[in-house]
Design goal:
The chain is α/β, with parallel strands linked by helices and 365 residues long. 48% of the residues lie in helices and 10% in strands. It has 16 helices and 7 strands. α2 packs across α3 (74-83) and α13 runs antiparallel to α14.
Length: 365
């Protein structure tokens, strides 16, 4: 018998009742700063852990493990996947106590959000998930009326930051910036500017109040000056500083060599210009071209090989920049994972690495 029931005693669920938004954008583009700004608003509830990707991963994993567990009721398998989600984050977030009372999974998600809003006495629930713009269809499946704030930072500064913090080749980072933000323009065309806002990081730093008011108008909440109260006592290792520091907006001009900057603008030039960023080499705009497959594979596997010998990585813990150790086993596993992703057909790749995708594949009562 299915755990999710569909009978007349259940009151109909109205998904339009719950107000939600998601912060998206290429990594190192200001998603954390934006989440802090909105989190300061008394009517907004947003926590430090991404729920969007946990929900998306849950549904994708559920689809993959269900064929292996068809001898069990499908809703039991779903509950099992929720209870075994990464670090228990979904079991803490979702209303599993009343699991049997919901007509479907989406109803449970919305009711859980509504419960969180009631507890925090807030009006709108938000979530910050960099690169979420690639998963718009998944988010809309769960939250059909949600709003998306897509933050964009100067592509040259973003590429530099990813090369320093994520150890990514700066030209690959430049390409990823183009790919990640073009998707944002496509998404905005699909669902409209009333539900998909593209915001510039530089506006957030140089004009924080007017930008905050624009955000509030978009989310249909009143402006509150508490939004502009940055974290006190920020130190050099703090992820978010105590002021809106504009000094680093053009820092990339000093740190990126002219020859590398030329290569970056050959990749990013047209989109930089479209978004109103000033080019350092405007004469190259007609020479702009996408990265070739050969170069992409070469740079990707170069990064992959270097990763094998990197025993630590930079990460954010409690909004502090910290070094996180990486075991040799994890590095070897990631190396093979990336190698398979780039060179094997998708079906073969997923079959070979299905244990990585789904560590828990068989339901145990």
């Amino acid at each position: 018998m299915a755990i999710f029931k569909n009978h007349s005693t259940l009151k109909p669920f109205n998904h339009t009742k719950v107000k939600t938004f998601f912060i998206a954008g290429v990594q190192r583009s200001g998603t954390t700063l934006l989440s802090v700004l909105l989190g300061n608003h008394p009517e907004v509830e947003i926590d430090g852990y991404s729920k969007a990707f946990r929900l998306i991963s849950l549904l994708n994993n559920y689809e993959k493990v269900l064929p292996l567990n068809l001898q069990h009721p499908e809703d039991e398998v779903l509950r099992w996947k929720i209870e075994n989600d990464y670090k228990g984050r979904l079991s803490e977030f979702l209303d599993l106590e009343n699991f049997e009372s919901y007509p479907n999974f989406r109803a449970m998600v919305h009711a859980s959000v509504e419960k969180r809003l009631d507890e925090k006495q807030a009006q709108i629930w938000g979530d910050k998930s960099p690169n979420l713009q690639f998963y718009l269809s998944d988010i809309q499946l769960l939250f059909p009326d949600t709003k998306i704030i897509h933050i964009v930072r100067d592509g040259r500064a973003t590429a530099l930051s990813n090369s320093k913090r994520a150890y990514q080749n700066i030209l690959l980072a430049a390409k990823d910036w183009v790919d990640g933000n073009v998707v944002g323009f496509v998404n905005q065309k699909l669902i409209g500017t009333d539900r998909y806002l593209i915001l510039k990081y530089e506006d957030l730093l140089s004009e924080p109040e007017s930008t905050a008011r624009r955000l509030c108008d978009f989310l249909e909440i009143p402006f509150d000056s508490k939004m502009l109260e940055m974290e006190e006592g920020a130190t050099d290792d703090s992820y978010v500083k105590s002021t809106f520091d504009t000094s680093k907006i053009n820092q990339f001009k000093k740190e990126i060599s002219p020859s590398t900057l030329r290569k970056i603008e050959r990749i990013q030039g047209p989109l930089l210009k479209k978004m109103g960023y000033e080019l350092q080499f405007p004469e190259l705009i007609d020479q702009a071209r996408p990265m070739s497959l050969r170069q992409w594979l070469w740079l990707r596997q170069g990064d992959n090989f270097k990763m094998l010998f990197r025993s630590k990585r930079m990460g954010m813990v409690n909004r502090k920049n910290v070094e996180i150790p990486i075991s040799l086993r994890n590095r070897l596993s990631k190396f093979m994972f990336n190698l398979g992703h780039d060179f094997l057909p998708k079906m073969m790749y997923e079959k070979l690495f299905q244990r990585v995708y789904n560590k828990d594949r068989y339901y145990k009562k």
